[in-house]
From TrEMBL:
Domain Succinylglutamate desuccinylase/Aspartoacylase catalytic residue range list: 45-146
Gene3D superfamilies (UniProt xref): 3.40.50.880, Zn peptidases
Pfam family, one: AstE_AspA_cat
Source organism (scientific name): Luteolibacter rhizosphaerae
Domain Biotin-protein ligase N-terminal: 311-481
Protein name, UniProt field: Succinylglutamate desuccinylase/aspartoacylase family protein
SUPFAM superfamilies, per database record: Class I glutamine amidotransferase-like, Zn-dependent exopeptidases
Length: 496
C-alpha cells in the first residue's frame, strides 16, 4: 500500500498527467516454481508489455535488468514484469531446469508451438503461459544472454535482438539497435537483428498464439561485466518504451533502486574489479537483511547512478584500473557522492583507490601506500606493492574498530593479497584517518618490504563531507566467518 502511494505521488509530480499504480503478486504460489511479478499500471491508455528475465538460469543480466526496469516511472499503458521466470535454474546458476525429465529441461523450448496439438511442456511453462496469456500482451520482451558476440561467433546469438518479423518489431528493432550500438566502441561487439525466435520459446509462442509483437533481447556474457550487460538490456528496453510513449522523453535508462529497509548498495564490477570480488560482496551483504546489492559500471557512475544508493563498494582487483575506467568524471562523481553523505567501502584495490598518493586516487584521507619503486639487486627496479600470492595474515581490531565491527578480541586471521601497506606519517603531519585494525603479522617478497607491514593499519576509516569511508587492505570477505563483521562495517559506512 505504501509503495503504491509513493508511486502515484511520484508520477503525478513528474509528468502531471497520469497516475501510476504498482502492485505485485506471485505466479505458481507455494510450488517450487513460485516467482514474483510486478504490475505497473497507469491511468493513461497505452500498450500492455510483458517483460521477462531469468528464463535461463545462467543468464543473470536479464533477471537483474528486469528487476531494475520495474522501478522506472511509467506514463502510459501497462508493464508487467516477471524478473525471475525460472527460479530453480537461477538458484543453480544453470541454463536448464534442475530435476525435471529430459525433453522438459529447457524452459525456452516448453511453450506452445504452432501447428502442434500439444500446449506447454512441464509445470513451470504451464504456470508462466497461463499468466502471460491472461495479460493479453501487445508486446512480449524476453531478456537473455548469449555466450559470445554474434558478429564474432555466429554460432551464438549473443548481442542480438531476435524478433518475430511483425511490422511493429521490424520498426522498433533498428532503433533499439542503433541506440545501444552508439554506446559500444568495438564494431565486433555491436548488436545485430536476427529472426525468428526458436520454436517453443516464450517469444515465438507469444507472437504465434497471442498475436503479440515479441522479441528476445540477448546480451553477451563473454568478457563483459554484469553491470554492462544489464545496462545494455535497460538501454534497449528503454528505447522501446520511449517509442511507445510509455516513459518520458529525456529520461535515461537509469538504475533506480527501490526504497528498502536496509542499505542500497552499488557494487562496482567494471574494469579493474576482479571477477571474484563482487559475488563475495553480495555474499557479505546477505548478512544485512533488507539490503539491496546491485552492480554498477563506470558509465553508470559517470551518469550519477551512485546518488540513488547509500553505499558504494569498490572491491579487489586493480586500483589504478578502476580509476582509469571511472575517468576523471567518474572519480569526481564518487567523491561528490561521499561528500553528500554516501558511504564508501574500498577493499584492497578499492583501498588503494581511496588513498592519497596517486594522481588517480580519491584522497579521502592522507593515507598513503607503500608502493614506490626500489632497486632490487639482480632484479632491477621493482614496485613495492607486490608481496606475493594470496596468503593468511593476522590483524587486531583497535578500540575504534571494536565500536564498528563488534568485540573480536585477539588476533583475527584474514586473507591478504597485496593490499595497501600504510607507511609511517612524516614528522610534520598527523593522520586524517582513524585506525580500525592493525596488521599483526606480515608477508614480503622483496627485502625492503621486511618489517614494513606488522603493526601498520589494516583497516582505516575517515569522513569526507557528510559521508563515511572505510578502507580495508586485506580481504575479510574471503572468509565466511568474517563476513558478518565486514557487513557491520558496511552498515556503518552506509548513508544513514
Ligand atoms: Zn537464454
Amino acid at each position: 500500500m505504501r509503495r503504491a502511494f509513493i508511486a502515484i505521488l511520484c508520477s503525478l509530480t513528474t509528468c502531471g498527467i497520469s497516475a501510476e499504480l504498482r502492485s505485485s503478486g506471485l505466479i505458481a504460489t507455494g510450488s517450487r516454481w513460485e516467482t514474483p511479478y510486478q504490475v505497473i499500471e497507469t491511468s493513461e491508455p497505452g500498450p500492455t508489455i510483458v517483460l521477462t528475465g531469468g528464463v535461463h538460469g545462467d543468464e543473470p543480466a536479464g533477471a537483474r535488468a528486469a528487476e531494475q526496469i520495474c522501478e522506472w516511472p511509467l506514463i502510459r499503458g501497462r508493464l508487467i514484469v516477471i524478473p525471475r521466470a525460472n527460479v530453480p535454474a537461477l538458484k543453480a546458476g544453470k541454463r536448464l531446469i534442475p530435476g525435471v525429465k529430459t525433453g522438459e529441461r529447457d524452459l525456452n523450448r516448453n511453450f506452445p508451438r504452432a501447428g502442434s496439438e500439444g500446449g506447454t511442456r512441464g509445470a513451470l511453462a504451464a504456470h508462466l503461459w497461463d499468466f502471460v496469456a491472461a495479460q493479453h500482451p501487445d508486446w512480449l520482451i524476453d531478456l537473455h544472454e548469449g555466450y559470445d558476440f554474434h558478429r564474432l561467433q555466429p554460432g551464438s546469438v549473443g548481442s542480438s535482438i531476435i524478433d518475430c518479423n511483425s511490422d511493429a518489431t521490424d520498426a522498433a528493432a533498428p532503433v533499439m539497435l542503433s541506440t545501444v550500438n552508439a554506446t559500444i566502441a568495438d564494431p565486433q561487439r555491436w548488436f545485430v537483428n536476427l529472426s525468428l525466435p526458436v520454436e517453443g520459446s516464450l517469444a515465438r509462442a507469444a507472437a504465434e498464439q497471442l498475436g503479440a509483437s515479441a522479441m528476445i533481447v540477448e546480451t553477451t556474457s563473454r568478457d563483459q561485466p554484469l553491470s554492462l550487460r544489464t545496462r545494455q538490456h535497460r538501454i534497449m528496453v528503454h528505447q522501446l518504451l520511449l517509442r511507445l510513449g510509455m516513459v518520458s522523453q529525456g529520461s535515461e535508462a537509469a538504475i533506480i533502486p527501490p526504497p528498502s529497509p536496509g542499505p542500497r548498495v552499488a557494487i562496482f564490477d567494471d574494469k579493474g574489479a576482479g571477477g571474484g570480488g563482487p559475488p563475495l560482496m553480495e555474499a557479505t551483504l546477505r548478512e544485512l537483511p533488507g539490503s539491496i546489492a546491485w552492480r554498477v559500471g563506470a558509465e553508470d557512475v559517470r551518469q550519477g547512478a551512485l546518488e540513488r544508493f547509500d553505499l558504494a563498494i569498490f572491491p579487489g582487483g586493480s586500483g589504478s584500473s578502476q580509476a582509469k575506467a571511472l575517468g576523471e568524471r567518474g572519480r569526481h562523481a564518487v567523491r561528490r557522492f561521499v561528500e553528500q553523505g554516501g558511504g564508501y567501502v574500498g577493499i584492497c584495490a578499492g583501498a588503494y583507490l581511496s588513498a592519497s598518493n596517486y594522481d588517480w586516487s580519491l584522497a579521502f584521507s592522507n593515507q598513503r601506500t607503500f608502493a614506490d619503486m626500489r632497486e632490487i639487486p639482480g632484479k632491477g627496479m621493482k614496485s613495492m606493492w607486490y608481496r606475493g600470492p594470496s596468503s593468511l595474515v593476522t590483524m587486531e581490531l583497535s578500540d575504534a574498530g571494536k565500536q564498528i565491527f563488534g568485540d573480536h578480541p585477539g588476533e583475527i586471521q584474514v586473507r591478504y593479497h597485496n593490499g595497501p601497506i600504510v607507511p609511517p606519517m612524516l614528522p610534520n603531519e598527523s593522520p586524517t584517518y582513524e585506525v580500525l585494525a592493525w596488521f599483526r603479522s606480515e608477508v614480503s617478497h622483496y627485502e625492503p618490504q621486511e618489517g614494513t607491514m606488522t603493526d601498520t593499519p589494516a583497516m582505516i576509516s575517515t569522513r569526507h563531507g557528510k559521508g563515511r569511508v572505510l578502507a580495508i587492505s586485506p580481504h575479510p570477505e574471503a572468509s565466511k566467518a568474517l563476513r558478518p563483521m565486514l557487513a557491520k562495517g558496511m552498515a556503518w559506512a552506509a548513508r544513514n
